[in-house]
Amino acid sequence: MDHQALAREMRGLREQVTGITDTAVAAADGLLIAADTADSIDPEGLAALAAAGLGLARRTAEATDRGALHRTVTYGSHGCAAFYAVGDSALMVVLGDEGMDVDRLHRATQPALRRIDLILTARPEKASEGV
Fold this sequence. Notes:
Elements: H1 3-16, E1 20-27, E2 32-36, H2 43-63, E3 71-76, E4 79-86, E5 90-96, H3 102-121
Antiparallel strand pairs: 1-2, 1-5, 3-4, 4-5
C-alpha cells in the first residue's frame, strides 16, 4: 500500500475544507491504517469507535431499506465527526471544528474517497525476478 499517497489525500482534504482538524483511515474492522491527528486524539481508539459507529449506521440503512450507507455525521458542541465508507472494507474519519462547512466537506470527500479506495485496493507490484 502506498502510505505516502494516502497521506497526500488526507492532507489534500484538509487543504480543501477549512475547519478540518483531524483525519484517519481505518479498515472496516477498526484497525488503523493511517492518521493525521492531534496529540490529544488516540488514533487507534478513534478508528475502533468509527468502525463500530459506521457498522451500526450501515446495518440501520440496510434494515430500513435506505440503500448503501455513504456517511454518518455526529455533531457536538465543539464541532463534528464525519465517518465515510471507503468501499466495503475501509472507512475515513474527518473531525472538524464548529466552523467547518459540512456540505463542502461532503462534496470534497467524494473524489478523495474514490482515490483512497484505489490506493487501498491496489495490488502491490511484484519485484522483478532474475532470469
